[in-house]
Specification:
821 residues, alpha/beta, GIY-YIG endonuclease, 7-stranded parallel beta sheet, 6-stranded mixed beta sheet, 26 helices, 37 strands, globular, binds adenosine-5'-diphosphate, binds zinc ion
């Protein structure tokens, strides 16, 4: 008997065995997809990872339904890499498979249950079962019947679904099979019987009385003649023909019906870029050239190199030169960015250099486009020799990877938070590169502590650039002491006189200004001046943020919103005030302080929609906006040439975040935002407003002292047992019942601290201890660097299994975040 071993796209840790025939056994290869039945009557797209002849002992193997591929679409390296991700990040292999594949390649046709958009749900009105379904739909955009059966652990789920539909929460729809459809382009050619000269005159004769048809045929001849002069005849699209002849598709259709034209279709790659390589000569500066040589040198010894170059040192140009070297070898290059919003700028820069060798993979692309890139990468197409993407591009079926760049490697967006797999794209990239024998370059002006530590301990190579490109000076940083300014009444709203003077100066010189405030909305708190009441979210343990423009109070954790109250809900007083401030308030204040300046705002509220981010960037680049206010989105590698001033409105909120990385992050964020100033010629200026001008971190930012920050933080990390000295696994427990959760968390904590020979902390109530009506507790496991991590994880898994075996705790949701960021 013959069998295949498959991964199912479900949150299941195991692989499954199915029966195949002998013929199939010889046909099927690892990495092909097969449709298999699973559960009662569902069909899934499973991935073959082995063929064998070992009958499973615990269950009778079912037969596969059909083979879906003619050749593998997932490579063996990928399968091994996914298995590594599942083991290292402690998640089901099915989660990795499902997260890695474009969903169009996981097609299945079943009833799909989704939740209605933009409907506010009063969760207190839901029964437990209804709540579980509702909640699962917060995690996944849709569910299938069998998911719900397993969530509720009962067969008859129809009554629950019916109630949810009645409550206007759910919709059912039959999912359309969205399989991959290549875009076809319609072409015409002349029927072969008219190819000879006699045929031709016959044709013209036929069309004597059909002017429009004759015109289009004439245009066809013109086009084919002109295209032919450049070598072979090029196919002529219907679109082009109609354009040139200034005609209509009806006329073409008539000619096709008369069998004068023949139509045919060619598959066009959807993701097609018009740009051509400009062959722009790129000359590296001395410092860049030295760095370039240093990196190449380091690659002869080591697989990974860190390029630590100050902001605007011209790291991108060094990447370009390195990519060029790998292209010659015919190998593929992967360029990872922390944020898809940044791709537009970068793609432009790379296209100018490499033309159509650059492909982009990102989640805003639709399914078809993603499948197309998938196939190009798999087939080693020249069109996808360089792939740019955010973290998920790591899952593409690289044929032969030569080089990976992880730009802005310190960015926390490289770590996936939810759902599983909770992987770190930088670290997973290093593992992937190893199996391809490829090299990895990590780039940053503010490397993560972990990476710099690896470079210092010579695990990675290290190349540093301490000067900006073109002899531009580092920006001058000036600190403004808010305590003093408030005391001396030198503040207008949240602006010190210093900041106002400098903005005025910059504007008078026609220069642009960036203002940074890492909080959106108008203010995070509204408070009653009479009784002190602060409106809270009903479902979460946070105060509601005031959004003035929409006159709303909104929860940033669950999306709940309500109209801004005119009086206090507790004592009815109308004396309400706001506390704290966000980008919206800064923008408002700007309008009254600088009524003539044009202002823009860049935060999650203004960048929604497909090109929201790009539009704001463009208008700022085109100088349609003088002052741009924004959140940390501004800190991510943007290159503007006319910004002479950057203002950080308040440095303190970042510093006092309850997180062991708070100082490191504050340093990175401030240095990165400051780095947007003065990127060409004139020295830029940065004003940091703070109550703590003497804080070490702020001093380090001011003195551009990365190494000082590194050493100080490293010292703390060692003392308080954090990375890079300890690996952290964060265990999060969630449940609606406060007492049950508390008890379960304590049980888990106790078993862990008894069985793991290492620090276990908790169970802690996080700063926001309830989200969407679920209470949260966390446990931190700190694994010393020299402890074998594999066996520790096995022990943890065993403990979790026994936790789940306790009936009382089964409903508590437990998630693991390995190397939590
Ligand atoms: P970084 O990524 O290090 O912050 P960039 O790569 O964005 O810096 O470079 C900063 C600016 O300098 C960009 O506008 C870039 O086009 C320009 N630049 C850098 N190197 C060169 C070079 N060798 N030739 C021309 N322009 C360069
Ligand atoms: Zn009140
Ligand atoms: Zn909420």
């Amino acid at each position: 008997m013959y069998f295949v071993e498959v991964i199912l796209p479900l949150s299941l840790a195991k692989t499954f065995t199915y029966r195949i025939s002998e013929t199939e056994f010889h046909y099927i290869k690892k990495g092909m997809r097969v449709a298999v039945p699973f559960g009662k009557s569902k069909m899934y797209t499973a991935l073959v990872i082995a063929t064998h002849q070992n009958q499973p002992t615990l269950y009778e193997a079912k037969e596969i339904h059909q083979i879906l591929d003619e050749k593998p679409i997932v490579t063996e390296i990928q399968i091994a890499h996914w298995q590594w991700i599942s083991t290292y990040y402690m998640c089901a292999i099915g989660d990795v498979y499902r997260g890695a594949m474009p969903s169009a390649l996981l097609l299945e046709s079943e009833t799909v249950i989704t939740h209605k958009q933009d409907v506010f749900v009063d969760e207190s009105q839901l029964s437990d079962d209804e709540f579980l379904v509702y909640q699962a739909l917060q995690q996944q955009s849709s569910l299938k019947v069998h998911d719900i059966i397993s969530i509720l652990n009962k067969k008859n789920i129809v009554p629950v679904l019916q109630k949810l539909i009645d409550k206007n929460i759910l919709v059912l729809e039959e999912e359309i099979q969205e399989s991959y459809k290549p875009k076809l382009v319609r072409y015409v050619r002349l029927h072969s019987k008219y190819e000879s000269n006699t045929g031709l005159s016959e044709l013209i004769e036929t069309l004597k009385n059909a002017n429009k048809q004759r015109e289009i045929v004439m245009s066809y001849f013109q086009l084919s003649a002109s295209e032919k002069t450049r070598g072979e005849a090029k196919p002529i699209t219907v679109k082009k023909l109609i354009e040139v002849a200034n005609s209509s598709s009806a006329v073409v259709k008539a000619l096709i019906e008369k069998e004068i034209f023949e139509e045919y279709f060619i598959q066009e790659d959807r993701v097609n870029f018009a740009g051509k390589a400009q062959e722009k000569a790129l000359l590296l500066s001395q410092a860049q050239q030295t760095a370039f040589n240093g990196i190449k040198d380091s690659f002869t010894q080591k697989e990974v190199c860190l390029l630590h170059g100050v902001t605007s040192s011209g790291k991108t140009e060094i990447y370009i030169k390195l990519i060029e070297e790998y292209l010659v070898t015919g190998k593929q290059v992967l360029y990872l960015l922390p944020e898809i919003a940044l791709t537009t700028q970068l793609v432009g820069r790379l296209r100018a250099y490499f033309g159509d060798k650059v492909a982009v993979f990102h989640s805003k692309y639709n399914n078809n486009e993603r499948v197309e890139v998938w196939k190009q990468v798999l087939e080693n197409s020249p069109k996808a020799q360089i792939v740019i993407g955010a973290r998920s591009a790591l899952f593409l079926p690289f044929y032969q990877l030569g080089f990976i760049i992880v730009d802005e490697e310190h960015e926390q967006t490289f770590k996936q938070v939810d759902p599983a797999p909770r992987y770190h794209a930088r670290d997973a990239a290093i593992v992937l590169a190893h199996s391809h024998q490829a090299k990895v370059l990590l780039g940053s002006a503010t490397p993560s502590l972990e990476t710099y530590f690896n470079a210092q301990s010579e695990k990675y190579g290290l190349v540093e650039i301490s000067e900006r490109f073109g002899n531009v000076q580092m920006p001058l940083i000036e600190l403004v002491d808010l305590k003093d300014k408030y005391f001396r009444k030198r503040m207008t709203g949240h602006f010190s006189d210093t900041l106002i003077d400098d903005i005025t100066l910059a504007l008078s010189l026609g220069e642009q200004v960036i203002l940074f405030q890492n909080r959106r909305g108008y203010s995070p708190i509204i408070e009653c001046m009479t009784c002190g009441h602060v409106p809270q979210c009903q479902q979460c343990d946070v105060s509601l943020t005031y959004h003035k423009h929409k006159n709303q109070l909104r929860c940033h954790y669950c999306g709940y919103s309500m109209a801004k109250p005119t009086n206090c809900h507790s004592c009815s007083s109308i004396d309400l005030t706001t506390k704290g401030f966000g980008t919206e308030q800064i923008e408002q204040e700007l309008i009254s302080i600088f009524p003539l300046a044009k202002t823009g705002r860049m935060d999650q509220d203004t960048t929604r929609g497909k090109f929201g981010f790009e539009k704001i960037i463009d208008s700022f680049k085109n100088r349609e906006v003088d002052i741009l206010v924004g959140t940390q989105m501004l800190a991510k590698g943007l290159d503007f040439d006319n910004v002479s001033l950057v203002g950080i409105m308040n440095a303190d909120t970042m510093l006092y975040h309850p997180d062991f990385r708070a100082f490191e992050r504050s340093f990175q964020m401030m240095t990165q935002v400051a780095g947007r100033a003065g990127r060409s010629e004139k020295q830029g200026k940065v004003i940091i407003q703070t109550y703590n001008p003497n804080h070490n971190t702020i001093q380090q930012v001011t003195n551009n002292d990365y190494f000082g920050m590194y050493k100080e933080q490293l010292y703390d990390r060692q003392i308080y047992k954090y990375p890079p000295y300890f690996r952290i696994i964060k265990v999060t427990l969630k449940h609606r019942d406060f007492d049950k959760l508390k008890e379960g968390a304590m049980w888990l904590y106790q078993v862990m601290s008894q069985n793991l020979n290492m620090p276990v902390l908790g169970p802690e109530e996080p700063a926001i201890s309830r989200i969407r009506n679920e209470y949260i507790r966390t446990i931190l496991i700190k694994i010393p660097q020299n402890t074998p991590i594999g066996s520790t994880k096995k022990t943890i898994q065993k403990i979790l299994n026994s936790f789940e075996a306790v009936a009382l705790y089964r409903a508590i949701k437990v998630t693991l975040n390995v190397d939590f960021y």
